Structure formats: structure tokens, C-alpha cells
Prior knowledge:
The complex is a heterodimer.
Chain A: E1 18-25, E2 28-33, E3 36-41, E4 54-56, E5 61-62, H1 64-79, E6 88-89
Antiparallel strand pairs in A: 1-2, 1-4, 2-3, 4-5
Chain B: H1 3-16, E1 24-28, E2 37-40, E3 46-49, H2 57-67, E4 74-76, H3 82-85, H4 88-94, E5 99-102, H5 111-121, E6 125-128, E7 140-145, E8 148-154, H6 169-172, E9 176-181, E10 184-188, H7 194-203, E11 211-213, H8 225-231, E12 235-238, H9 251-259, E13 263-266, H10 267-270, E14 273-278, E15 281-286, E16 293-296, H11 310-317, E17 320-323, E18 328-331, E19 345-348, H12 351-357, E20 359-360
Parallel strand pairs in B: 3-4, 4-5, 5-6, 10-11, 11-12, 12-13, 18-20
Antiparallel strand pairs in B: 1-2, 1-14, 2-3, 7-8, 8-9, 9-10, 14-15, 15-16, 17-18, 17-19
Helix pairs in contact in B: 2-4
Amino acid sequence: xxxxxxxxxxxxxxxxxxxxxxxxxxDLAVLYVEGREQVVERCRLPEDAREGDxxxxxxxxxxxxxxxxxxxxxxxxxxxxxxxxxSFDL
Amino acid sequence: MTTLHRLLLPLxxxxxxxxxxxxxxxxxxxxxxxxxxLIRTAExxxxxxxxxxxxxxxxxxxxxxxxxxxxxxxMILSHxxxxxxxxxxxxxxxxxxxxYLEPGFEHNSPGYPELxxxxxxxxxxxxxxxxxxxxxxxxxEIDLGGGAKLTVLWPQRPLHPFLFDTRSDxxxxxxxxxxxxxDHSVLFTGDAEPETEAHFMRLGTDLRSDVLKVGHHGSRYxxxxxxxxxxxxxxxxxxxxxxxxxxxxxxxxxxRLKEAGAQIAxxxxxxxxxxxxxxxxxxxxxxxxxxxxxxxxxxxxxxxKPGATPAAALRETQAYVASKRSxxxxxxxxxxxxxxxxxxxxxxxxxxxxxxxxxxxxxxxP
Lengths: 90, 366
């Protein structure tokens, strides 16, 4: 995965310095910003941004390292949970 | 008091008490642009499916608290997108839950690991929707008691792997579950994508349901025609926000739902939508309606004719109904008919027969 991802720059609304892409909806991206949703045009993100990527809007690229670290943290958290499987009754 | 009186008194008290209708209720809660549905069984079991976006959390928790007593029996997260998990933390703090179920699909959205950590800290039983590895040919079932059951139709690990390279993988691996109660059912689809629907077609999954919680807030991509022809919903509930930026629901989706013969109810237009399932059929009532509307009449004992719709079968054989306790009779499709308790329900095949025993009710004037 390349770190050299360009971002199309457009004016307004103000972008956060860094945010995670929660999801895409049509031509919009929904960012997770301090526990809330911020909706921005998808074209303001790097072209290769995917759901779950951490975007460094200052550098205008996907922060590959931060994305990987967040995914690894989540995987480690889930691996440590006492998860049950199969059918059950209430 | 004689011994006989002592024996008869409890019986007399029992018969004097109003008998609770055996009704399962689903509240499609108004959380703006997102999903949240609360199931309440006749026995008082509670299941919350999704928790809307963060902005809706406080009001959602207040509403769930008002509709329940004690912690939820089960909290389900269909998939870890913010418009589905955003309000769950508030519900967890205010109401609590005994169990939590999710698809087990890892998605990096920062509030999601926070939710998992909070669940673990509170000692909530955490489950994923995988089938039992020793019995993987059987779908995962959750027995809600009293004849109510949730069957998880997707994901189906380890029998089938997650779907990848779809429009949205977290969406495509949403928990899809069918709630069945007596003759009636509700299909919850999360944000299932066209790829999920196509996968059901390939597997030949039985999807038929009276009520469909429309996938992905009525997005134009989901609710494909082949999928709807399998579900054959009488009622389609769309959970979305007023003037949302994503233009949900798509006009194409609304057209497809209408073509499939479904009545449409929308939280953005009608607020909270309440669906009730009982032996008297399925009714729907929004926060803007004073009376429920019957969307599915009761299924006849002995079964309807093959291919006949329940409504047509009802017209053929049991066009009029009444309560043993009332002096009036109703048309079988009158919303009030849904409120007649099963043990009091009387059917008439002709108007003459009904009119010989009772007088016509003023609400439907049969």
C-alpha cells in the first residue's frame, strides 16, 4: 500500500486534521470525528481511501501506519474477549 | 369461608383479571438517520437491534428505558457503522443488557472498540453470530420464549465465509435475522447489500416474511426485485432521517417495494412505528396514528388455500368476526378485529349469520 495518496482539495466545510472513514454513502464520506459523524464530499478524500482508513487531511493522504495500528488494536481487543458462539435461549 | 369457597376464590380472581393479549411488539424507534428496533415479547423479553447514530443516543436510551423494565435480554449490533452503534453506549449506561450479539466482522470505526470495552467491563455476555461449530448445518437460533424465535440468516460462518469486495463489506456482512412468532414474521436486514441478497438467492434461503425492515435505510442499491419476490412483505418499514444527505430512501426502492405489494411505513415521515404480531394478525401504528392498521389478517386454522393470500382466504371463509363478550361484529379486516382476544374470537362466514347474532360495529360498519 503506497503512502503517496493524493487528496483532491476543495474548500469547505472545514476538514479535521485527521479522521477515520466510518463509511461511504453515495458520493459522501462519513467521518468519525470526536464521537460524532461529519459528512464530507467523497472527492475531498484520497481517491484510494477505503472504509476504516485513517485519513491525514493535512498531508492529504491515507495514514497507512495509523490505519494498520488501529486495525491491529481492534483485532487484539476482540481476540481477548470471551466470545461465545452458536444458538442460545433468552 | 368454606373450603369450597377457598378453592374457588383464586379461580374467580383469575377469571376476573383481564387476560393479557399474547402479542409480540416491535418498535421501530425514530433515531433520525440510522436504525434501532426494540422487540418486546408477550413474556417481557426484550431485544434491541441497533442503536442509531450518536446524536440519537440520549433520546433512544430514554425511550428504551420507558419501554422496558430492567436490562435488555439482548442487544444486537447488525454491523459496526456509526449510524447503527452510535447510541448503544447510552443504552448500555442507562438500561444495560445481559447479552450482546454482533456479526464478528472487524471494522475500524473508533467508537466500536470503545463499545466492546464497555461491554466487557460491565460483564455482558458477548456473542458473535457464528453457527455452532459442532452443529454447523443448523442456522443460529435465539429462543425468545413463548414461541418467539430469531433465526440468524447471515453471516453464516463457519459454513460460509464473510462476503468481501462488495460495495461495503461491513454492510454486506450485516446480521440478517428473521423474527418468527406464531404464523407471522419480521425480517431484519441491517444494511444488507445487493451482494448479500444475491447470496441468499444462491443459497435458496427461505426469506418469506410479513414485515421487512428495509435494508440500508431504503438505499437504491438494496431491496432488489429478486430479493423482494422471495420475501413478499406486506409491510416495509424504512428507518431513515428527515431530509438526510444520502437521499434515502431511493425513489427506485420505493417503486420496487410498491411493485412487490408492500405497504410502506417510514420513520422520517411518521416517527416511531409500532408493529404488533399476534394470532389476530399483524398491525402497524405510527406515532401519528391513533389507531393501528391491520396489514396481515390472521391465518386460518387448517391453513389457507395454496396460493391464496391470507386476506383473500379470509374473505372466502371468515369475513366477519366478533368478540364473545361484545354485542357487535366487525369486518375481519377492521383494525379493531386485531384486538379481540383469541379465546373470545368468533367467526362468521356470512353477514347474515353475523347479523343474526350481533349488530354491526359503528367503526367499520360491516
